[in-house]
Amino acid sequence: MVENVTWEIQKDLCNQIVDELLQYPIAQVYRVPFSCRYPSNNNPDNYPPQKQSLDVIKERSNDGTYASAKDWHRDMKLFFMAILHKSTKDPLLRLIAREFNRKYEKKMKRFELFQEKKWTEKCNILRKKIDELILNSPETIKPHFPLTMTMKPEEMKIASYDLEFIIRCSRKISKPSDILALSNILEEDCPNISTCGTDVQIDLRALKKQTIFVLLDFFKKRFPEEEIRPKIMFPIPIQ
């Protein structure tokens, strides 16, 4: 349980978990309240025997019986400990009880999101997945998403066919406006670049990843008819 979050806030999540558990068909096996008690060697608070079921626990959450999420968790732990103990002699019941307990433990991980560190870690994982989906989305979809992605540049991967696409498109550049746009993109990585000559040599491997992705986006919009033809499916590491 999370110490610095009030019971009123955590109670909603507690009730949500119980409601979801009650939706599983296996929950019907334990719908009738039954006697539960902690073993004497594992009962530091001397918690007395209880008549427990998920419905009873939810009722106690809402009628003021519990003063904290710790109280709720104590009864949930007692309930699942009891059904695991009751099923030891029946292989089928044992399988049902273990699966039910596994679902409960998985749902309990949601409490970690009340902690800023865990929440941030989860967001970063999801953000990375979303960014990778956007980065590898169909060409018809990409214009609808912003260029600036939240993934850190060092976490991105650039494929060889991306570099080939940039090279092919760069050979088509001739308009002064396009040359100016490219110089603006490259000026941070190549501050001494000159656009006065007829040919400018740029080492793509010397560019930052973010710059390469900006170039990709520029050329895709400038030459939408040009296809990115993947030839090598392995990413090329860019230092």
From TrEMBL:
Keywords: Bromodomain. Pfam families: Bromodomain (PF00439). Residues 14-81 form the Bromo domain. The keyword Repeat does not apply. InterPro entries: Bromodomain, Bromodomain-like_sf. This is Bromo domain-containing protein. It comes from Tritrichomonas foetus.
